[in-house]
Specification:
Layout (H helix, E strand, L loop, with lengths): L1 H22 L19 H8 L14
């Protein structure tokens, strides 16, 4: 009787030790992503979005 109880305790402690050992193993995945600059939309498209009559305000080099 005592021998069976000792085996159960040993197996239980072994199972707990294995569980704790595997739970501490973590793998971190690092994904490097490229930074993509946002493209400017063309002045004509910006004109359509904002409802203007001409694209002069949305052209970056136009200062008139």
């Amino acid at each position: 009787m005592k021998n069976v109880l000792t085996k159960r305790i040993v197996y239980g402690l072994f199972a707990i030790g294995i569980t704790v050992g595997f739970s501490n193993c973590t793998v971190k995945h690092v994904h490097h992503t490229k930074v993509v600059k946002a493209k400017r939309i063309p002045p004509g498209q910006a004109k359509k979005i904002h409802g203007d009559r001409n694209a002069r305000r949305h052209a970056p080099g136009h200062n008139k």
